[in-house]
Write a structure and sequence with these properties.
Structural class: alpha+beta
Strand content: 15-25%
Distance between the termini: 65 Å
Largest sheet: 6 strands, mixed
Number of domains: 2
Radius of gyration: 22 Å
CATH class of the largest domain: Alpha Beta
């Protein structure tokens, strides 16, 4: 049986996980249905198609052999793979998000391929939903999209470019090249040390003068609640064209404004609050990167929640994002994930729980963008009407925000600790209100 060692960042995600903080990504897709039995039919289709997708048959196995990557893990085909262990049909429900929240709090089974698809028939008989869960060690957002798309109805995808032919990797060939390579190796090592020092210093500086809110940090209950918001992408473009910047700048500023409204409405107050938001950045290079491994860095910015002016909040977000882009994703406090490449496998195994607990010292809230195809998707002839991405929740944090654009609409997926944030629906309404406010101040 062939096996593939987990990349360092994948291994970190595998070891950070705990029962109260599962490290899986989620996506709740809502489909328009033509009959009350559409959900059951969709479950049958998903199970049948999953068996034919190699990436969905992969399990993760820990490695303890002294001669191998001691303390590491490998990705390999599950010899006992049964799609019925992964695709589950639930009873009809009138609230997809209520069920999704309870399902998101359950860790995936680590002894088999770490993914699940939960089919939720709607009580109305004209809709059903599918909650996909993929462990972060199995897939990042882009990889999860590829795996989910493989079990949906066929869609046009660009052909993958052929990977360049790699030079011979034998020991003799490496020794022959050593005199030529040595200066470059030394320069690379020094560069890595400099980058690590720069990242460490930036992390330390980011913690100075932190003004967050108790609502964004709470003791972990292990419970989850989800909510979703849908916006018209044309409204976002109206704001962007009026003030400049990017669509992503506007979407992040909307989160800042929504948090301000939410904190004020619940009585916590927003004055002076500027939580640190981690904005993940993909470093995936299709021609050279591993097709399955996570390739992530990130930007760290202060969300101007305490600023009462919506245009000023947007301007401050834009300035912070521009500053991060100028520095690049390889440096700064947001690039901590890159340090995983320099930690031995056993270090990830032993230090994983500590790293997970330290996330609260690094950032206060995750705001991530998950790519989706521009083409429409279907399942058994039923069109995908909406899709809400869900991010993992770090220890000591109450809220994570994921955003996707699909078919001309922006979908916010909110995940929260259910006990710390019982009013997540109020935050969802605040997102809609903030967009309406931005439109009103941008229109003449």
């Amino acid at each position: 049986m062939t096996s593939d060692p987990l990349a360092p960042l994948d291994l970190a995600f595998w070891n950070i996980e705990s029962d109260r903080h599962p490290m899986h990504l989620g996506a709740l897709g809502v489909f328009s249905a033509h009959s009350p039995t559409a959900g059951a039919h969709a479950a049958d289709l998903l199970a049948a198609r999953a068996a034919a997708v190699p990436g969905l048959r992969m399990r993760i196995r820990d490695v303890w052999q002294p001669l191998g990557s001691f303390g590491g893990a490998t990705r390999e085909a599950d010899p006992g793979f049964d799609p019925l262990n992964h695709v589950r049909l639930h009873a009809p429900t009138g609230d997809f998000h209520a069920v999704a929240g309870r399902l998101m709090e359950r860790p995936l089974e680590r002894s088999r391929a770490p993914w699940e698809a939960h089919v939720l028939p709607g009580e109305d008989g004209v809709s059903f939903a599918v909650l996909f869960k993929f462990h972060h060690a199995l897939a990042d957002g882009l990889r999860a999209l590829t795996l989910a798309a493989a079990v949906l109805d066929p869609m046009d995808m660009p052909e993958r470019r052929p990977r360049p032919v790699e030079p011979p990797r034998g020991l003799l060939a490496d020794l022959r090249r050593l005199p030529v390579r040595l200066p470059g190796v030394l320069r690379g090592a020094l560069s890595d040390v400099g980058r690590a020092l720069d990242i460490g210093a930036s992390v330390a500086l980011s913690a100075l003068g932190v003004s967050s809110s108790a609502a964004l940090a709470a003791g972990s209950s292990g419970t989850r609640r989800t909510a979703g918001v849908v916006l018209d992408i044309d409204d976002v473009h109206r704001v962007r064209k009026a003030v400049g910047g990017t669509v992503n700048d506007v979407l992040i500023a909307v989160v800042a404004g929504a948090l301000r409204r939410w904190l004020d409405e619940r009585g916590d107050g927003s004055e002076g609050v500027a939580p640190r938001a981690l904005i993940p950045v993909s470093r995936r290079r299709p021609r050279t990167s591993h097709p399955q491994g996570n390739r992530l860095s990130g930007y760290l910015i202060r969300l101007p929640v305490g600023d009462p002016d919506p245009l000023a909040r947007l301007a401050r977000v834009r300035t912070a994002m521009d500053r991060n882009k100028d520095a690049g994703p390889n440096r700064g406090a947001g690039a901590v994930a890159l340090l995983a490449d320099h930690v031995p496998a056993l270090g990830h195994r032993l230090g994983g729980p500590l790293v997970g607990q330290a996330a609260r010292l690094w950032f206060d809230i995750l705001v991530t963008s998950v790519p989706l195809p521009g083409l429409g998707l279907r399942l058994g002839g039923h069109p995908l009407a909406a899709v809400y991405p869900f991010a993992p929740l770090a220890p000591g944090q109450s809220l994570a925000v994921a955003v996707s654009t699909y078919r001309g609409r922006v979908h916010y997926g909110l995940v929260a600790d259910a006990e710390a944030v019982p009013d997540l629906d109020r935050l969802a309404r605040a997102v809609t209100d903030e967009v309406e406010t931005l439109i009103s101040v941008c229109d003449p």
